[in-house]
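Contributing: when you submit paired examples, paste them exactly as shown. First protein:
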Amino acid sequence: MNIIKWHKKQVKKNLNMFGLSNYQGFWISFIKGLIFGAITIWFLGCNEQVAEKTSPAPNDSIIALNDQVDKERIYNTKTELTTEVKPQFDYAIGVKGNCGMCKTTIEKAVNGLDFVENSEWGIKTKILDIAFTDSVNFDLEELNKAINGSGYETMNSTANQSAYDALPMCCKYDRSMVVYGGPQSKQN
């Protein structure tokens, strides 16, 4: 007995057991499918992953203590040390994308370039901040090629179509999306 015949026989048996018509059974199956689909999307969907930055812990060895310093001054020095230090980036450009998987792919593509020290893409801002290893010798054309080759695009360049088609469904961004146009070098 193949699976289809078995399923039809099982459905007919269940409908008779509960005294339901085929029409009622159809609607029960339909609603059950919607609920199952919603639960599946809830658990397997592309979740937005936002990294929270924390300030570095104060290093007590940095604070030079001598007998003349009062407790209030030590407290103020420790407070100043714990303020969050934002990383310095040399360049910012808007990159179209949607989720945490986009963030990983974009940053991996850009960080793989020789002249890039670090990069960080904001899920909500859609801005890719880049720190170059040498703020004089970098290639913006190569940077755009890396972004486009990974399936993403900026306002100034278009993504490689085959790379875009290979992106997961949650990463298929609206191609008419408007992002920060750059490219502008940040002045430190």
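Second protein:
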Amino acid sequence: MHKLKNQQGATLMMALLLLLAASMVSAVILTAATSSARRLENDRAARQAYLTVSSAARLLRDDILNASFVQETVKTTYTDDTSTETSRETTSPTGFTAAWLKAGKAAVDRDSGKSFTDTITLSVDGLDDVSAVFTMAPNYDITIVLHLVDGGDSDCRLVLTLRENKADPTVSTVSGGGLWVRDVTTTTTTISWPSDNATIEKEAVVSKS
């Protein structure tokens, strides 16, 4: 009889140990599943953030690649060695980035040696809003930093860089042209951003020591 009680106690202890082991395994599986689901959700949010921000970057890039400023300066020299000079802009941007480009060029031309910076929010139906920080350098190079307005931990930050063409002005001179005119010199200056000077890259992360 005593031996039977001991066997029942051992069986009960074994059952409790198995129940405890099963509970621990279940907890580990549940934790792993929850962690995996959270990781998948974060990955999905990160991919969506990249697609949204990169689409905005390409949209801006393509519009600026089609933009240009062309300025024509005409110098008329007379036979008495006096001269007059007139300038006019024959071409200017017309796309949706035109206001940005015109404001940047005007500011750079007005304050030589200083960059122009402005921030706008890009809104497209069905996509999260994207913040774009536009900077035009004194040499007309453009940098635009883009990220989600409410990106949180899944945000994606991209840098669109467009380097100005740096082409030399074209100069043409025509002799004569009038009774008192010795020659007329036309200088054409073009500011543009060619596709081979455009890049879209992830923003470099600077670690804090």
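If you have annotations for the second protein, write them as plain sentences, like these:
The mean pLDDT is 85.
The beta strands are 68-78, 83-91, 116-122, 130-136, 142-148, 158-162, 170-175, 181-192, 198-202.
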